[in-house]
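Reviewers of the previous submission asked for a worked example of the structure-prediction workflow described in the proposal, so we include one complete record here. The input consisted solely of the amino acid sequence. No template or homolog information was supplied to the procedure at any stage.
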Amino acid sequence: MANKETQQQFSSEELPIVLVNRLPSFKLPFQDHLLSHFHLLDPHDSPETYDSFLSRHSNSIRALITVGPTPVTAEFLNLLPRLELIVGTSAGLNHIDLSACRSRGIAVTHSSSAFSEDVADCAVGLLTDVLRRISAADRFVRDRMWPVKKEYPIGFKLGGKRVGIVGLGSIGSEVAKRISAFGCIIAYNSRKKKQSVPFPFYASVCDLAANSDVLILCCALTEETHHIVNKDVMVALGKQGVIINVGRGSLIDEKELVQSLVRGEIGGAGLDVFENEPNVPKELFELDNVVLSPHCAVMTPQSFEALLELIVTNLKAFFSSKPLLSAVSIE
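From that input alone, the workflow returned the following structure tokens.
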């Protein structure tokens, strides 16, 4: 038995070392699968203090996996002098100090298209739910209101709606593919016009809103896109307009959104993300024209399988000095 344990320990130590950077409340969902390829170091599984653990292992850590939106700050990077690679597990990168990575020459990867199809499905589901009042109708039936009120308010048709997509990347493109099948009229806003895309391009989100019935937010959260949907955009969208957000909560000025919804200044919203998660403005709980989801657009077994494959591929490429599959340009 002792020989077997020694052999297992030796094998683990021979595997490439990867640090797991996570908040205490987060777990790496496929950790067991990664253990067959890498020697994972997780400070939260150690009896040592976090700083002591990092100090002891810092010179052996060249790569790390950051779980979800776990912050990667310049101060944290200073604790890892030999770090060369950060493997992200989300599409967004607002939790990683890219400037510090750039100055250190640290490569960064993200989830790329691993989540795109499932997030797009969620976006279309939220939109359909808001327009056809599916969740509200479910509550109406469960609360035994059907025999009392007899009639339920009518919903709205999805087909023919003018849909503005903010961020026509991998997720936005999948959204466009899906809503095209409903006969929707698509336009988009992005950092720059995409020559291969047939849809009308608007450089201003406010102009896009003025020419849309629905805005679907799929873009990354950056300094430029923080509160990209503000009061002016909501006014331009109009009283019948609907906002769907599967990007990041802070893409929208949430206080203005709540006020606009409560006052009936926009038609509805489907929200998978919020500014101060897991806290959601209580005013939204009372509104039947709002559909809420707990930041779970990516949560499918298929998404996690695709992400696991991408993470393993990126890490193996790094340790073999080969090109990364989903490297982020941070120049």
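Residues 1-10 have pLDDT under 50 and may be disordered. We consider this example representative of the routine output the project will generate in years two and three.
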